[in-house]
Amino acid sequence: MAIETITGQLILKSKRQKPVLNRHPWVFSGAIEHIYGTPKPGDYMQICDNNGRFLATAYYNPNSQIQARILSWDDTTAIDAAFWTQKLQRAFDGRAKLALEPTTNAYRLVNAEADGLPGLIVDKYGDYLVVQCLTLGIARRKDLLVDLLSELVQPVGIVERSDVSVRRKEGLQQTKGLLRGKLPPDDFSIQENGHQFQVDLLAGHKTGFYLDQRDNRNVVTNPTFVADKSVLNLFAYTGGFAVYAAANGARQIVNIDSSIPALETAERNIALNGLQDRCDFQTLNGLKRPTDEYIAADAFEILRYYRDNEQKFDMVILDPPKFVNSKRDLDKAARGYKDLNWLALRLLNPGGILATFSCSGLLSSDLFQKIIFGAVVDAELDVQILAQLGQAPDHPILLSFPESAYLKGLLCRIW
Ligand code: SAH
User: Fold this and answer.
1) How many angstroms separate the alpha carbon of residue 99 from the centre of ligand 1?
2) Which of 42, 224, 299, 314 could form an S-S bond across to 140 if both were Cys, CB 3.0 to 4.6 Å?
3) Beta carbons within 10 angstroms of residue 278's beta carbon
4) 317 forms bridges with which residues in the sheet?
5) DSSP 65
6) Could you give the residue range(s) of every CATH 3.30.750.80 domain in the chain?
7) Other beta carbons less than 10 A from residue 158's beta carbon
């Protein structure tokens, strides 16, 4: 690859340089005093303070609210393949130290900004890689990055899952497909903590599987909590929590999701792990299912249905999709979370456990805890928090970039 040079210099407004001085990797349009040179979209540029002093090297996108994303705090005059190799290698080394293999062969290799690689996600699923290019700066260098990933990891195939709506904010279309090598076979599966899961890299949610919940699946389904218990697994997707709960001795697990394909895969995953006798996909905990299909249903409706039929469980797991997409959604989302948790708390047997999550980055863990508290008050219960949960360590949070913290959870027990 030709060495790309720096084509512009971005001067920050004096009152807006603090975040960059604190190593936050984003420069918003409102923080820019002036741009020297004629940088094209995606070009590399220098970020300087108001006195022209060098602060960082970034890539540029004039069509985004986030006009520059910082790649390096060093004064790099030219950026070449060796620069990217070093950054990728550093992220890989961090994963190697997590010692996830051999019982886990699917994990995040590159977590974008939190790994110093803004806009780039790379997930490893066995011998395959899935990449997401979230920004123009990364999309423009996709070929180079795919070459480097092929060389460094030597996967059998590399799949792109850039079918995410945030790309619009960067002026990019959504795209997905095979980039290199071969697609995995139809029955492709991964291992997580020794459990098997079928994953569809092209059609699954996110890059195929909710890898960020790996450690929480272990914590929540500890045999102390689930052995011989009944579990209501809401927002089950392909059965992540269900497989762990069944393997750890749960007596019965009811899986609810609004997606039939997800539940079909969940049922296959249960079978793949030899746990068929413990999972119920066909009835509502003994009550007749409402349709001939799977229980593909709205979690809110199912919770009310159980309440009206006085059904109880020893554990309820709530792992809903993101409710907050912009700050404007916060109030409505807070009401949604409260309703969901209030309904779930009321289905629990005495001493029952609620494992409740939010993957909304814009909702802080403090606010989440307050919402759960509100639900507890309305349910007139005493509740203990047994564990405060977050995203697995292959999805690290960069302290200077709080936006990288998004997944939060509380493991609660009715006292
Ligand atoms: N717990 C899962 C991940 C859940 S992701 C795991 O460990 O892998 C959120 C899931 O909620 C998705 O599978 C989606 O299909 C489902 N979903 C979204 N809205 C829903 C609703 N209103 N009712 C039930 N399921 C819903």
Assistant:
1) 29
2) 42
3) 18
4) 233, 355
5) S
6) 81-181
7) 21
Q: Which portions of the chain are predicted below pLDDT 50?
A: 284-294
Q: Are strands 157-162 and 383-390 parallel, antiparallel or unpaired?
A: unpaired
Nearest atom, ligand 1, residue 301 CA? 23
235 CA distance to ligand 1 middle (Å): 3
Within the chain, which residue ranges are assigned CATH 3.40.50.150?
210-414
CATH 2.30.130.10 location in the chain:
6-72
C-alpha–C-alpha distance, residues 148 and 82, integer Å: 9
The reply to whether ligand 1 has any atom less than 6 angstroms from the CB of 210 is yes
Helix 81-96 and helix 142-153: axis angle, to 10°? 50
User: Known catalytic residue: 279?
Assistant: no
Residue from 257, 317, 389 whose mutation best tests the ligand 1 pocket (most atoms within 8 A of CB) = 257
The residue type found at 184 is P
Is pTM, for the whole model, over 0.70?
Answer: yes
Count of CB atoms situated within 10 Å of the CB of 365: 17
84 CB-contact burial (10 Å; exposed 0-12 / middle 13-18 / buried 19+): buried
Q: What is the CATH number of domain 81-181?
A: 3.30.750.80
CB 217 within 8 A of CB 307: no
Taking the C-alpha atoms of residue 387 and residue 410, their distance in angstroms, rounded to an integer, is: 6
The pLDDT value recorded for residue 1 is 53
For the domain spanning 6-72, the CATH number is 2.30.130.10
For residue 359, give the ligand 1 atom closest to its CA. 5
Q: What is the pLDDT of residue 283?
A: 52
Q: Is the peptide bond before 41 cis (omega within 30 degrees of 0)?
A: no
Between CA 404 and CA 24 the distance in angstroms is 11
Q: Which two tokens stand for residue 160?
A: 């792109």
Please give the CATH topology (third level) of the domain spanning 210-414. Rossmann fold (3.40.50)
First vs last Cα of the chain: how many Å apart? 62
Please tell me the predicted confidence (pLDDT) of residue 292. Answer: 41
* Residues 189, 362: Cα–Cα separation, whole Å: 32
User: Helix, strand, or coil here: 390?
Assistant: strand
Ligand 1 in reach of 323 Cβ (< 6 A): no
259 lines ligand 1 (CB under 6 A): yes
